[in-house]
Amino acid sequence: MVAYTRGLTRVRGAAFDFAQAREAPRLRRSESKSRPESPSLNPESRIPDPRLPLHDPCIICRMPLVDALGRPLRSLRVSVTDRCNLRCEYCMPEQEYVWLPRDDLLHFEELNRLVDVFVDLGVDKIRLTGGEPLLRRDLPQLVELLAEKPLKDLALTTNGMLIEEFAGPLKRAGLRRLNISLDTLQPARFLQLTRQNDHARVMRGINAASRLFPGTKLDAVIMRGVNDDELEPLLDYGASIGAEVRFIEYMDVGGATRWRSETVVPRRELIERLTTRFGAVTAIEEPGSTAPADRYALPDGRLFGIISSTTEPFCRDCDRARITADGVFFTCLYATDGLALREPMRQGASPKTMAALVEERWTARRDRGAEERVEVRDRTVYIPVATLREHPHLEMHKRGG
């Protein structure tokens, strides 16, 4: 769909070389970063580690798959709906969208069975996404099903509009962690960014949820000339409630139809600004981590993260897959084709057959979507509106962030 060439893109009135940024040394990630091995298996023989108890009959099944570039399948983003109650400028800026038919959405029992397939293939981290996942009726019931699985992490991403009501039920159901979007602390700016006048509701929800979920992460997409003057206030607010702020570069994924390179605030510039304001920023070393955020500490000890998918991608460490609410399996946020799993599952395919479908797709995976976007000359909108309406699965809100 897109021809990839190396080139320069303008940011802040100066030539910003995305490709050069990708190749520059990073403060945490490195080219020699080791791939995490399975903690439960001898990778040479696919035989259970004799030091571990054999209380789990599927222990042999959970050796992670490895793709064509050596990346394991560890993390799964599960979208439970494509609907959202906000219209954020960087994600859903259009007036009209094509929605998934409700009959096509996977039932909770189907999602549970599908997650079992991925867990048996090595997935140990699940994040529920949307759209806005809390719009899915009775979501805590799904969380309760997933909480029974042998996972290292079970998290949910939300825009905060409904979290005040659902934080308690989600906690009781077994949810372990929350990521909440918070791009601004200013009510008027929130209205401008989301086309909804509910900033106070979101703030009440964040305050309530952070008391139930210690270590909540607050995700802020930073856009030049829009909210890049709120770095310090967001950090102050995060510290006041015990949450860690993650600054996210504005990404040109499917659905970001207003994306412009000039609006991107690169990671290096964020670090420079924070260093000027607070003093030396220290990178936190996390060997073996495949988390999307680089983490840092301010001189006063406050922690924050930066997700630099746009200017310094981390495709070669990516262990994430995505399932849409109607069961399409995507191996990259930028992927333009997916594998439909709903049909074979509803036709009675066995777990073994479903696992073979997933394994075939993942082992052939060579996606480097964000890295390839860095090399595009005169980089503009990734997928035009007309194409998105014809192929709605290309929208980011269909497959989760």
The CATH class is: Alpha Beta
Mean pLDDT across every amino acid position: 87
Order of helices and strands: EEHEEEHEHEHEHHEHEHEEEEEEHHHHH
Provide the CATH topology: TIM Barrel
Short description:
This protein has 401 residues and is α/β, with parallel strands linked by helices. The chain contains 13 helices and 16 strands.
Give structural notes.
A 12-stranded mixed sheet has the order 11-12-13-10-9-8-7-6-5-14-15-16. The two termini are 21 Å apart. With 401 residues, it is an alpha/beta fold. It has a single domain (18-24, 64-399), classed as Aldolase class I (TIM Barrel). It contains 13 helices and 16 strands. It has helices spanning 18-23, 108-120, 139-147, 163-173, 187-194, 199-212, 231-241, 267-278, 342-346, 351-363, 369-374, 385-390, 396-399; strands at 9-11, 14-16, 41-42, 47-48, 75-79, 125-129, 153-158, 177-181, 217-222, 244-249, 282-283, 294-297, 303-307, 320-323, 328-330, 339-340. The longest helix is centred in the middle third of the chain and has 14 residues, at 199-212.
Topology:
Elements: E1 9-11, E2 14-16, H1 18-23, E3 41-42, E4 47-48, E5 75-79, H2 108-120, E6 125-129, H3 139-147, E7 153-158, H4 163-173, E8 177-181, H5 187-194, H6 199-212, E9 217-222, H7 231-241, E10 244-249, H8 267-278, E11 282-283, E12 294-297, E13 303-307, E14 320-323, E15 328-330, E16 339-340, H9 342-346, H10 351-363, H11 369-374, H12 385-390, H13 396-399
Parallel strand pairs: 5-6, 5-14, 6-7, 7-8, 8-9, 9-10, 10-13
Antiparallel strand pairs: 1-2, 3-4, 11-12, 12-13, 14-15, 15-16
Helix pairs in contact: 2-3, 2-10, 3-4, 4-6
